[in-house]
């Protein structure tokens, strides 16, 4: 009889990275969220995403790590790829601990398997949230002609602008409870040149594209935002291409980004620039169940 997988759960980030670091770095593209979020927690503090204490999990088989998860309350559970049995075991262990989960975000099959297991354990009916596609940059194609203007790396003088646009971006995607606050986000990105602006010839910023710090050779482009009244003029494509070029110049072996599959415009745009699909991710939100069963 095969033993039920047992997850090692900890609030110790250093211990988690000691156990899981090699595993996460072995697949930097699908593990981009785990790599970048833990790097942010280590560099900016444990409560950068909220007041709740982050939690981490590692699954080992015969001394080899096969899966991990992290959770930064009030955000969703974020596991790496799981088999159905691993998803069932994780749902059972978290439910038995009395863990309250607002939802899950993971590769599509993993998210679905866990959501169903969580429903069976807690009675909480999952509601489908956003569907996202992870893209990897292939051959970069710079838009030609480019819109009027030029790119510029954001500095401290742009802090208020970045805070405002990031707040608008978060409101637009509906992720209020799972993201860094606007001020903390702006300060973190400014600290390493992690936002590029596209500005018109008179120096007016009209679009922005961010990039995560390089971890395990990968950089993820995020977020890309253009105010609604300025869209359709090529600004997003131009600034995304510039950030992508800069990431390659910085030595990134993987340049990645997520798109909302409900937005055909952005998916087509990124493919024209040179991004190619890697895998799809799905989010589920959990309502109030009847408790562990």
Overview of the structural elements:
This protein has helices at residues 13-26, 32-44, 84-96, 108-122, 159-173, 182-191, 235-249, 264-273, and strands at 7-10, 55-61, 64-71, 77-79, 103-107, 126-137, 150-153, 195-199, 205-211, 218-225, 254-260, 275-286. With 293 residues, the protein is α+β, with helices and mostly antiparallel strands. 41% of the residues are buried. The model has no long low-confidence stretch (mean pLDDT 93).
Quick rundown:
With 293 residues, the protein is of the alpha+beta class. Helix content is 36%, strand content 28%. The protein starts with 6 loop residues before the first strand and ends in a 7-residue tail after the last strand.
List keywords for this structure.
293 residues, alpha+beta, eight-stranded mixed β-sheet
State the strand order across the main sheet. 5-12-6-11-10-9-8-7
- Helix-and-strand structural type: alpha+beta
Low-confidence stretches: none
Biggest sheet architecture: 8 strands, mixed
Q: What is the tally of helical segments? A: 8
Helix share, percent:
25-40%
Average pLDDT, all residues: 93
Oligomer: single chain
The end-to-end span amounts to 24 Å
Strand content: 25-35%
**Helix and strand succession?**
EHHEEEHEHEEHHEEEHEHE
The dominant shape is elongated
Tally of DSSP β-strands: 12
Rg over C-alpha atoms, rounded to the nearest angstrom: 20 Å
Topology:
Blueprint: E1 7-10, H1 13-26, H2 32-44, E2 55-61, E3 64-71, E4 77-79, H3 84-96, E5 103-107, H4 108-122, E6 126-137, E7 150-153, H5 159-173, H6 182-191, E8 195-199, E9 205-211, E10 218-225, H7 235-249, E11 254-260, H8 264-273, E12 275-286
Parallel strand pairs: 10-11
Antiparallel strand pairs: 1-2, 2-3, 3-4, 5-12, 6-11, 6-12, 7-8, 8-9, 9-10
Helix pairs in contact: 1-2, 3-4, 5-6
